């Protein structure tokens, strides 16, 4: 019985440490962001990739015990604008994004009461995605796979 308990704990630990990968597409699927979660790191990578490239990614520190900062807000690249991504209060370990094409921020804009807000990220060409709820607002703002 004792061995079964320790085996169950070991298997749970192995399973909970596995990586997770999400692909976030623009509504026309012409733009893609790859999100790779590891135990205590998250990579936000421009493009659909299987492995972490040398450029065009942000590496973040995460805490698997605390489900905070689990919302990605963004606006897709348009004719005269860059792809913009935000995770509020994210701890950036590395930022290798090409800043001439992409913007990554770790602070949401503040409303008139100095409170972080997702206002503007529900408009056409923008989205916000909850990692724990797997919900996208607006529903047609992004495709998650």
Description:
There is one protein chain. 21% of the residues are buried. This protein is mostly beta strands. It has one helix at residues 2-16, and strands at residues 20-25, 32-37, 41-46, 57-61, 71-75, 83-86, 91-95, 102-105, 126-130, 136-137, 143-144. The protein has one domain. The protein is globular. The protein is built from one helix and eleven strands, in the order αβββββββββββ. It has a six-stranded antiparallel sheet, with no helix packed on it. The N and C termini lie far apart (40 Å).
Main attributes of the structure:
10% helix, six-stranded antiparallel beta sheet, 11 strands, mainly beta, 145 residues, 34% strand
Produce the secondary structure layout.
Blueprint: H1 2-16, E1 20-25, E2 32-37, E3 41-46, E4 57-61, E5 71-75, E6 83-86, E7 91-95, E8 102-105, E9 126-130, E10 136-137, E11 143-144
Parallel strand pairs: 6-8
Antiparallel strand pairs: 1-2, 1-11, 2-3, 3-4, 4-7, 5-6, 5-9, 9-10
The helix fraction, in percent, is: 10-25%
Unreliable residue runs: 5-18
Distance linking N and C termini? 40 Å
Beta-strand content: 25-35%
Count of individual domains: 1
Largest beta sheet: strand ordering: 7-4-3-2-1-11
Oligomer: single chain
Report the radius of gyration as a whole number of Å. 17 Å
Overall geometric form? globular
Number of helices: 1
Structural class: mainly beta
Query: What's the total number of strands?
Result: 11
Largest sheet, in brief, is: 6 strands, antiparallel
Helix-strand sequence: HEEEEEEEEEEE
Mean pLDDT score, rounded? 85
């Amino acid at each position: 019985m004792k061995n079964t308990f320790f085996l169950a704990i070991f298997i749970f630990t192995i399973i909970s440490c596995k990586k997770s990968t999400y692909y976030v597409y623009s509504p026309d699927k012409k733009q893609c962001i790859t999100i790779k979660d590891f135990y205590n790191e998250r990579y936000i990578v421009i493009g659909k990739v299987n492995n972490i490239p040398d450029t065009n990614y942000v590496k973040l520190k995460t805490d698997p015990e605390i489900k905070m900062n689990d919302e990605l807000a963004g606006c897709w690249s348009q004719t005269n604008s860059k792809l913009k991504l935000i995770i509020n209060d994210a701890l950036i370990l590395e930022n290798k994004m090409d800043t001439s094409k992409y913007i990554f921020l770790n602070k949401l804009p503040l409303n008139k009461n100095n409170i972080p807000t997702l206002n503007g990220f529900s408009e056409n060409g923008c989205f916000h995605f909850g990692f724990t709820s797997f919900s996208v607002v607006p529903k047609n703002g992004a495709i998650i796979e």
